[in-house]
Specification:
The chain is mainly alpha-helical. It has a domain of 54 residues. The longest helix has 25 residues. The model has no long low-confidence stretch (mean pLDDT 85). It binds zinc ion. The site of zinc ion has 8 residues, from α1.
Length: 122
Protein backbone atom coordinates (compact mmCIF):
# COMPACT_ATOMS: atom_id res chain seq x y z
CA UNK A 1 0.00 0.00 0.00
CA UNK A 2 1.09 3.54 -0.69
CA UNK A 3 2.50 4.84 2.59
CA UNK A 4 1.66 8.43 1.72
CA UNK A 5 -2.06 7.75 2.14
CA UNK A 6 -1.71 5.58 5.23
CA UNK A 7 -2.20 8.61 7.48
CA UNK A 8 -5.84 8.65 6.36
CA UNK A 9 -6.32 5.20 7.83
CA UNK A 10 -4.66 6.15 11.10
CA UNK A 11 -6.76 9.35 11.25
CA UNK A 12 -9.88 7.23 10.83
CA UNK A 13 -8.62 4.90 13.53
CA UNK A 14 -8.18 7.88 15.85
CA UNK A 15 -11.85 8.70 15.39
CA UNK A 16 -12.81 5.11 16.19
CA UNK A 17 -10.73 5.25 19.38
CA UNK A 18 -12.47 8.46 20.44
CA UNK A 19 -15.92 7.10 19.52
CA UNK A 20 -15.77 4.22 22.02
CA UNK A 21 -14.64 6.35 24.97
CA UNK A 22 -18.05 7.77 26.06
CA UNK A 23 -19.69 4.33 26.14
CA UNK A 24 -16.85 2.70 28.09
CA UNK A 25 -16.59 5.63 30.52
CA UNK A 26 -20.34 5.55 31.19
CA UNK A 27 -20.27 1.79 31.77
CA UNK A 28 -17.35 2.01 34.17
CA UNK A 29 -18.27 5.19 36.07
CA UNK A 30 -22.07 4.92 36.23
CA UNK A 31 -22.15 1.11 36.02
CA UNK A 32 -25.06 1.68 33.65
CA UNK A 33 -26.08 -0.64 30.80
CA UNK A 34 -28.99 1.39 29.47
CA UNK A 35 -29.11 1.19 25.69
CA UNK A 36 -26.33 -1.41 25.48
CA UNK A 37 -27.32 -4.52 23.55
CA UNK A 38 -25.27 -7.41 24.92
CA UNK A 39 -26.15 -9.49 21.87
CA UNK A 40 -24.99 -6.79 19.43
CA UNK A 41 -21.69 -6.33 21.26
CA UNK A 42 -21.12 -10.08 21.23
CA UNK A 43 -21.58 -10.15 17.45
CA UNK A 44 -19.35 -7.07 17.02
CA UNK A 45 -16.68 -8.72 19.18
CA UNK A 46 -16.72 -11.77 16.91
CA UNK A 47 -16.61 -9.51 13.85
CA UNK A 48 -13.55 -7.70 15.24
CA UNK A 49 -11.77 -11.01 15.92
CA UNK A 50 -12.44 -12.30 12.41
CA UNK A 51 -11.32 -9.07 10.74
CA UNK A 52 -8.20 -8.95 12.93
CA UNK A 53 -7.19 -12.36 11.57
CA UNK A 54 -7.86 -11.08 8.06
CA UNK A 55 -5.88 -7.86 8.68
CA UNK A 56 -2.89 -9.82 10.02
CA UNK A 57 -3.01 -12.07 6.98
CA UNK A 58 -3.17 -9.04 4.68
CA UNK A 59 -0.29 -7.42 6.65
CA UNK A 60 -2.02 -4.06 6.71
CA UNK A 61 -0.76 -2.01 9.68
CA UNK A 62 -3.81 0.29 9.74
CA UNK A 63 -6.32 -2.56 9.82
CA UNK A 64 -4.24 -4.58 12.27
CA UNK A 65 -4.14 -1.62 14.68
CA UNK A 66 -7.81 -0.80 14.14
CA UNK A 67 -9.07 -4.32 14.63
CA UNK A 68 -6.83 -4.96 17.62
CA UNK A 69 -8.22 -1.84 19.30
CA UNK A 70 -11.79 -2.69 18.34
CA UNK A 71 -11.40 -6.20 19.69
CA UNK A 72 -10.28 -4.83 23.07
CA UNK A 73 -12.95 -2.09 23.18
CA UNK A 74 -15.83 -4.33 22.05
CA UNK A 75 -14.81 -7.17 24.37
CA UNK A 76 -14.66 -4.72 27.28
CA UNK A 77 -18.13 -3.33 26.52
CA UNK A 78 -19.56 -6.83 26.04
CA UNK A 79 -18.15 -8.17 29.32
CA UNK A 80 -19.14 -5.07 31.30
CA UNK A 81 -22.67 -5.11 29.88
CA UNK A 82 -23.03 -8.79 30.81
CA UNK A 83 -21.83 -8.19 34.34
CA UNK A 84 -23.92 -5.05 34.91
CA UNK A 85 -26.97 -6.11 32.91
CA UNK A 86 -30.19 -4.30 33.82
CA UNK A 87 -28.61 -1.50 35.88
CA UNK A 88 -29.63 1.87 34.52
CA UNK A 89 -28.16 4.99 36.08
CA UNK A 90 -30.40 7.78 37.40
CA UNK A 91 -30.15 9.63 34.07
CA UNK A 92 -31.44 6.57 32.20
CA UNK A 93 -34.13 5.28 34.57
CA UNK A 94 -36.44 8.28 34.34
CA UNK A 95 -35.35 9.96 37.57
CA UNK A 96 -33.71 13.06 36.26
CA UNK A 97 -31.68 15.25 38.58
CA UNK A 98 -33.06 18.25 36.69
CA UNK A 99 -36.77 17.63 36.06
CA UNK A 100 -38.62 19.78 33.58
CA UNK A 101 -41.20 22.42 34.50
CA UNK A 102 -44.23 21.27 36.47
CA UNK A 103 -47.33 20.91 34.34
CA UNK A 104 -50.31 22.63 35.94
CA UNK A 105 -53.59 21.04 34.94
CA UNK A 106 -56.73 23.19 34.57
CA UNK A 107 -59.22 23.09 37.42
CA UNK A 108 -61.86 20.41 37.63
CA UNK A 109 -64.63 22.96 36.97
CA UNK A 110 -67.38 21.23 34.96
CA UNK A 111 -67.70 22.30 31.34
CA UNK A 112 -70.84 24.40 30.77
CA UNK A 113 -72.63 25.52 27.61
CA UNK A 114 -71.08 28.97 27.96
CA UNK A 115 -67.63 27.36 27.51
CA UNK A 116 -68.42 25.95 24.07
CA UNK A 117 -68.91 28.30 21.14
CA UNK A 118 -72.16 28.01 19.23
CA UNK A 119 -71.78 26.60 15.74
CA UNK A 120 -72.23 29.30 13.12
CA UNK A 121 -75.34 29.30 10.99
CA UNK A 122 -77.74 27.81 13.50
ZN1 LIG B 1 -26.85 5.57 32.18
Amino acid sequence: MDGSIQWLGFAGMGLVVVAYVPQIVHLVRARCTAGVSTWAYLVWTLYAALLLVYAITAQDPVFISLQAYQLVALTSIYLLSRRLKGRPCEDHCGKSANPGPEIVMPSDRPITNSDTPMPSGS
